[in-house]
Amino acid sequence: MSLDARFPAISDLRTRARRRLPHFVWEYLDSGTGSEATTRRNKTQFDAVRLMPSILHGEITPDLETSFLGQKFNLPVGIAPLGMSGMIWPGAEQLLARAAARAGLPYTLSTVASQKPEDLSSSIGENAWFQLYPPRDPDIRIDMIQRIKKAGFSTLVMTVDVPVGSRRERQVRSGLTQPPRITPRILAQIATCPAWAMGMAGRGMPRMRFIDDYAPKTKGLPSNKHAGYLLRTSPDWSYLAWLREHWDGPLIIKGVQDHRDVPRLQSEGVDAIWISNHAGRQFDAAPATIETLPRIRAATDLPIILDGGVEGGLDILRALALGANFVMMGRAWHYALAALGRDGPAHLVHILKSDLEANMGQLGLVRPQDAPTRLLPDDDA
C-alpha cells in the first residue's frame, strides 16, 4: 500500500507519530501552555477564512515557485525552528536540513537544537536560516553570529516573543527535563517505542549542543527552564539596533503580533516580519496569528511570514490571501519524521504540493500569490 493511501493528510502523520513516540517526547512536541486556548484559536480562526471557488476558468497548470528575500523556493512554505528536534526523532535537524535542500525550501535551525550550526554545514544548501534566542552577553552574541555565518546560514531570525519562560504544564507533567534524564518512568515510556529507542541508542540522549558551548553544565532542569534560559535575555529596541549593525545578511523578527510594533521594526531596518504566537506555547490569551495578519499587512510593505495553525495547502492559501508572503510550519515536519522516519519530510512535501494544486484548481489560481483575488469578505453573504 502506498504512502498516499495510508497517509494522505498531515492528520494521518500526526496519529502515527503519537503511537511511535514516548509519551514525554509527544508532550514536548504537541503541547501548548495553559489550557491551550491559543493553540485551538490558531486553528479555528484559520477555518473561518473563506475563499470563493471559481468556475469556467479552463485547465490550469499551477506554478508554485515563490520568491522571498531574494531567493526562489519551490513552495511558499518552509521549515520553522523547533528546539531539540533531535529528541523528537534521531538526527532530526540533519534529516530536515537535507530534505529542505532537496525540496528547495528554507530550513531554520534553532539556537536550542541538538546539533550545532557547524554540524549541518554540509547539509543545508543555500536556503539555511538560523533562529536566535538573544544571548545576554555581548561576547557570546558576537561569537554565535560569527559561527552561524561561517557555518553557511544566510538569514538570521531573532525570536522576540519569549521574554520569560512559559509554564507548558503538559511538558512538566510528562517528567521531561533538559537534558533528558533517564528515570524508571521515562524508561518505561521508551520501552514501548522501539524505533525511537533504537535510533537514540546509537546517538545517546540529545543535548543542546550549541548552548553547551556557552552555558555551565546543568543536570535535570525542568523542560520549561532549560539551560538556554541561563544565557538569553529579553531584548529591547537597542538590542535590535545592535543586532542589525552586526549582522550583514537578511534579518527577520519572529514573534510579532501587534501591528503597532511594525512601523518601528521597519524603521530599524529589519528585512521581514514573522507573525507568530509560538504555536500557543508561550501565552494562552494571545490572538490567533491569522487574526493579526490583516492589520500587520496594512501597517507595512515588508515581506511577512506567518505560522501557527497551518495544517495544509488550503491554510497556506488562506494566509497568502490575507497578506502573508510566506508560511512556515514546525510541528508537521516532526510528525512526518516520527511517522515515517527519513522518508517523512519528502512525503509531507508531496502532501503540501498536492493540496496546494488541488485547492488552486478549485480557486482558478495559477500562482499561490494570486490567492487574495479569491478572498471572501466577512460581510459577504
Describe it.
- The protein is α/β, with parallel strands linked by helices and 381 residues long.
- Helices cover 41% and strands 12% of the residues.
- It is built from 18 helices and twelve strands.
- The strands form three sheets. It has an eight-stranded parallel beta sheet.
- Helix 14 links the parallel strand 9 and strand 10.
- The longest helix is centred in the last third of the chain and has 20 residues.
Task: Give a brief outline of the structure.
It contains 18 helices and twelve strands.
The quaternary organization reads as single chain
Q: What is the helix fraction of residues, given as a range?
A: 40-55%
Strand order of the largest sheet: 3-12-11-10-9-6-5-4
Structural category: alpha/beta
Helical region count?
18
Low-confidence stretches: none
Give the CA-based shape.
Answer: globular
* Estimated radius of gyration: 20 Å
Strand content: 5-15%
Strand and helix order: HHHHEEEHHEEHEHEHHHEHHEHEHEHEHH
Largest sheet: 8 strands, parallel
How many strand segments? 12
Span from first to last CA?
44 Å
- The pLDDT mean sits at 93
Produce the secondary structure layout.
Blueprint: H1 3-6, H2 10-20, H3 23-30, H4 37-47, E1 66-68, E2 71-73, E3 77-79, H5 85-88, H6 92-103, E4 107-110, E5 128-132, H7 138-150, E6 155-159, H8 169-173, E7 177-178, H9 184-191, H10 194-201, H11 209-212, E8 221-222, H12 228-231, H13 237-246, E9 251-256, H14 262-267, E10 272-275, H15 289-299, E11 304-306, H16 313-321, E12 326-329, H17 331-340, H18 344-363
